Amino acid sequence: MQPFAYLRADRIEDAIAASGPDARFLAGGTNLVDLMKSEVERPLRIVDISRLPLDRITETREGGVRIGALVPNADCANHPLVRERHPLLSRALLSGASPQLRNMATTGGNLLQRTRCYYFMDAAFDACNKRRPGSGCAAREGRNRIHAILGASEQCIATHPSDMAVALAALEAVVEVHGPRGARRMPMEDFHRLPGATPQRDTTLEPAELVVAVEIPPGSFARASTYLKVRDRASYAFALVSVAAALDLRDGRVHEARIALGGVAHKPWRAREAEALLRGATPGEAAFDAAARASVAGARPYRDNAFKVTLAQRTVARALRVAAGIA
Ligand SMILES: Cc1cc2nc3c(=O)[nH]c(=O)nc-3n(C[C@H](O)[C@H](O)[C@H](O)COP(=O)(O)OP(=O)(O)OC[C@H]3O[C@@H](n4cnc5c(N)ncnc54)[C@H](O)[C@@H]3O)c2cc1C
Ligand code: SF4
């Protein structure tokens, strides 16, 4: 492991001042430390943020839920406000990693975890534009079973691994960030980015910007919602495909729908076209199958992952049936 300086920050301002392009924030350490050991991440400075006062879940004045960046994933999944108002988020969190990891992993760290692309995770492979810009993409011609089918680029076909991010995308959460130029808020949809020509950037965060919280606005999606994750093992595995689905049902019709997919793109993939199809529809197989087909419109599979197109459609249709209570 490359030598690095270690600093522990007690105040948000100190953490931001101590950070920069060569530094990394350390929260639970469950992703960063692994990547440092394998020399995928080589920061010169580690800014330990684990003591910052960002570990609370509170209700906002508007009736939303505010989750601090350092709330452990396990606490978030089990918090009464999350369980009662956003069971979809609770399910997503509990489907991720293992109990021990969920005790350490934090909100901010979960959203900022790096891809699980084999060629990114192993520094022995030279060609990885995300790890070494301009070096190529070993996954395009290599093993690409777990890779993206939507929104990929010539430079990178990696997927984002977070379950929590998929649920937060469907719930239209807002991410609050503090940085050298002050505070800003952005919709979850604008937080992660597609790879384009700069796959080394997973998010729209600037150097030294710190995630302080995510806020879920009040909504009417609690009851008719679910998170469905399909993976190679029943637990302790990342999603091949996952779906966060939430329906606002009124008078026997779909008033509004939210669908986000995980495991298929470089960011949580919001299926807007499918959502539009469902608006005003009678909940049932015909409407849900049409939405499922629309949710993978434009999919472009690679050698080993064509199965994901069918899998994603079936998972969307099933998630909608479960959410509507007709599974
Ligand atoms: C074996 C294994 C299985 C797993 N399975 C799953 C799974 O199924 N689903 C899933 O979603 N996840 C899974 N994970 C990933 C796990 O959820 C992440 O490792 C964890 O959420 C990262 O959180 P952390 O607090 O430990 O982050 P850290 O490792 O401390 O940090 C991760 C990154 O985020 C940055 N960071 C942390 N906090 C902030 C902040 N507040 N602001 C700005 N930057 C920040 C760090 O600088 C670093 O770059 C798994 C992990 C392992 C090891
Ligand atoms: S898919 Fe992205 S992360 Fe994987 S090898 Fe290609 S450039 Fe690297």
Structural notes for this entry:
The structure is a single chain. 31% of the residues lie in helices and 20% in strands. The protein has a 5-stranded antiparallel β-sheet. Strands 9-10-11-12 form a 4-stranded antiparallel β-sheet. A 3-stranded parallel β-sheet has the order 1-3-2, with no helix packed on it. The protein has a domain at 225-324: Enolase-like, domain 1, CATH 3.30.390.50. It starts with a strand and ends with a helix. The protein contains 14 helices and 12 strands. By secondary structure, the chain is of the alpha+beta class. The mean pLDDT is 97. The longest helix is centred in the C-terminal third of the chain and has 18 residues, at 307-324. The protein has helices at 12-18, 32-37, 73-78, 80-85, 87-94, 99-104, 107-111, 118-121, 138-141, 163-170, 188-191, 272-278, 285-295, 307-324; strands at residues 5-8, 23-26, 45-48, 57-59, 65-68, 174-179, 182-187, 210-216, 225-230, 241-250, 253-262, 269-270. It is globular, with a radius of gyration of 19 Å. The structure holds flavin-adenine dinucleotide and iron/sulfur cluster. Iron/sulfur cluster binds at residues 115, 117, 119-120, 128-130, 137-139, 156-158, 199. Residues 24-32, 69, 96-97, 101, 104-106, 108-110, 112-113, 161-164, 210-211, 238 line the site of flavin-adenine dinucleotide (FAD).
